[in-house]
Amino acid sequence: MSIVTEKFSTVESVRLGLKDVGYIATKQIAHTVYLAFHLGKPILVEGPAGVGKTELSKAAASFMGVPLIRLQCYEGLDESKALYEWKYGKQLLYTQLLKDKLNRIIEGETSLAESIDRLHQYDDIFFSPQFLEPRPLLKALQEKDGAVLLVDEVDKSDDEFEAFLLEILSDFQVSIPEIGTIEATSRPFVFLTSNSTRELGEALRRRCLHLYISFPDQKLEREIVRTRVPGISERLTGQLVSFIHQVRKLDIKKLPSVSETIDWAKTLVLLHAENLDRDLVRETLNTFLKAQEDIRITEEKLHTLTEHALREAT
Amino acid sequence: MDRILENFITTLRRSGVRVSVAETMDALRAAELSGYGDRGALKDFLAASLAKSLLEKKMFEVCFRHFFAIDDVVGEDFPIENTPTPPAVQGTAFLTQAFLAGDGGGLTLAFNEAAGRVDIGSIQSPTQKGLYMQRIFQELGLESLDRDIQRLTEEGGQEALAQARFLEVMRDNLIARVRNLIERQLELYARRRSEELSEGYMRSARLSALEERDLARIHRLVQKMVKQLKDRYSRRQKAARRGHLDFKKTLRQSVTYGGLPFDIRWKSKKMERPEIVAICDVSRSVSNVVRFFLLILYSLNEAISRIRSFTFCSNLVEVSHLFEKYPLIEALARLKSGAGLPILMNRTDYGISLCDFRDQYSDCLTKRTTVIILGDARNNYWNPRTEALRFIAERCKRLIWLNPETPSLWGSGDSEMEAYLPYCTMARECNTLGHLEKVVEYLLRKN
Fold first, then answer.
1. ipTM
2. CA-CA distance, A129 to A86, in Å (whole number)?
């Protein structure tokens, strides 16, 4: 753990550490991650789709050198899928295998009550940790050297699950009736992400640190593209980032995200493009615009957008 | 230093950011980690631990900028570096000593304390500027500084004169800074009061301030109501039924295991999503509350996905699509005027409207549906057609009638409320938020 603590000694070391694993963090992100580590609090990350919310936790996991345990939320997610389940199959198989043994144990007992009494001496055997199937939440608690727990799209889960999550996030322990309370050996570093499809409960918000990631500015996005797409020229990076930023100002349904900028950059590199030009852009629009209506709107302004991007990048 | 944070959190709270005690503790620890030296870090740390949504983040931003600007007034560059060599500092005044000793930190502290003692936070109008300035000067002991300057000038001699000039410069500097501080404070606190602060965020919805507040409350109440409807089938209920063995299911399951009741099944209630059908009167007789009704309708639509909404006057039309298509204000206007809808805005006819619903939309009624009718049941002496309401009541889970009139008026004149009453699971007076709250509470009690 001391190595991890060392990694978190300053904000700058966090920022650089994240950069080493390929995540370009703004000051704000680095600050929040640093703070969350020192306060031992979960981070609730919000922001438009595709700005790197999930990516942040992945980067944090590899930066800390601990496993990433991911829990994808969806409507109807419940404890047995998130926390633990009994291995029914294994339990059944074992009872069958041990049939003789069981018979021998209750041999000699004459009445039913006595047999049951005898069996009661062993009753918890089939409900021991060996028969427990840990699901993400329990797994995160059991990791000896800590883990990064990502609760993805928590807004998609039900209210009840959110309440249940509160319980775990505050104590980092769960109680399993048959076994007892399991406490985290070392507290996992928790990220929750939300796309605001549903307003999250006040209680959950209050319990987390809050980080809002918006679209990066041009300088940062250029840096991101350079890191994620090796071999792209400086000029092209400038042009395409400038273009994307203009598109984000248009009135379209779905704004292109950072991941789509990267996709586009990769496409352009594959096509050996040196400069943006209108035809090239028109042919590759669909890598970052995913609605026909959006493509139409952008195509109409293609000329001015491209000109502006070329001008801005020089 | 904690006092600064405390003041800051008070400012935040006044601006409408909800800050809990636990969060205050977080902020304290965060501030300890960052210190007050690095503004950027301090801001990010506090933002992460205090502002928990995008809206709160924006308010935080404004508050932070204004609040910590006070510190900057003194904290940043108090140019004391070219202090004249201070051989014999005769001045007794604190300010004289601090200036001559180049004690920037002490000045900052004194400045903050003075500002705190005069309670600068309660400044409310520009006419108070002079007053607060005088008070701060008093606290800082500007008078004795003046006296020192006077004395030094009278004393003569190159050194004393140099000191006096330096002190004069510093004094003017200080006065400017105090004025600056008061201006900023005024901006911060007065803006907070005049709701200008929130205007920026609410601009998208151009409701009057009062309605905006009401809407937020309606939203909360409706959400509570919806949650309560959902909760009937929630975790707690499921857990409560855990003790009930589902014998039939267990037996059926045991066939797989050679007759051993190995996989035990418990009785559980099926989860249901609430389904709501809302029917709203938009006629003239309810014109004073129709906006309120529509706000409820709008909130319901935002809160629940499986909802169908209808409005009626002389006939009934479905309006569910309007809520998706238009922002709040436009939707309200369209609903109220009936623009672009095949609705007849003549005299209200509950009978026809209910029959319309029965004939065209009764397929949306299931055993799980809750029907909410918002209206005064004033039917202009037409046929109430209670059989249509009966038809609806028989096919839904419950029928809630929210009437803007007090129960004593029900059935008077052309009100057909008494005729409709037997078919309602619940009928309540509802024309203020208080009433709506009561309805929700009633629903809560029922469980």
1. 0.82
2. 9
- In sequence order, what are the beta bridge partners of A180? A176
d(CA B232, CA B77): 62
Residue-wise DSSP of B108-122: HHHHHHHHHHTTGGG
Half-sphere exposure of A33 (CA within 13 A, CB side): 32
Q: Which residues pair with A183 in a beta bridge?
A: A173
Look up residue A308 and give its two tokens. Answer: 């502006």
Single out the residue of B400, B403, B447, B444 nearest to residue B426, CA to CA. Answer: B400
How far off is chain A from B272, nearest CA to CA, in Å?
Answer: 11
The model's pTM: 0.59
Per DSSP, the three-state class of B381 is coil
Nearest chain B residue (CA) to A78? B235
Give A260→chain B minimum CA distance, Å: 24
Which residues, 6 or more positions from B249, have their beta carbon under 8 angstroms from its beta carbon? B265
CA distance B375 to B197: 37
Q: Is A5 exposed, middle or buried (0-12, 13-18, 19+ CB in 10 A)?
A: exposed
Residue B415, both tokens: 């009100």
Kindly report, residue by residue over A253-293, the tens digit of the pLDDT.
888 999 899 999 999 999 988 888 888 888 898 888 888 88
Comparing alpha-carbon positions, the chain A residue that sits nearest to B29 is: A39
Distance of alpha carbon B343 from its chain centroid, rounded? 35
Token pair, residue A173, equals: 């322990």
Contact B30 A39 (CB under 8 A): yes
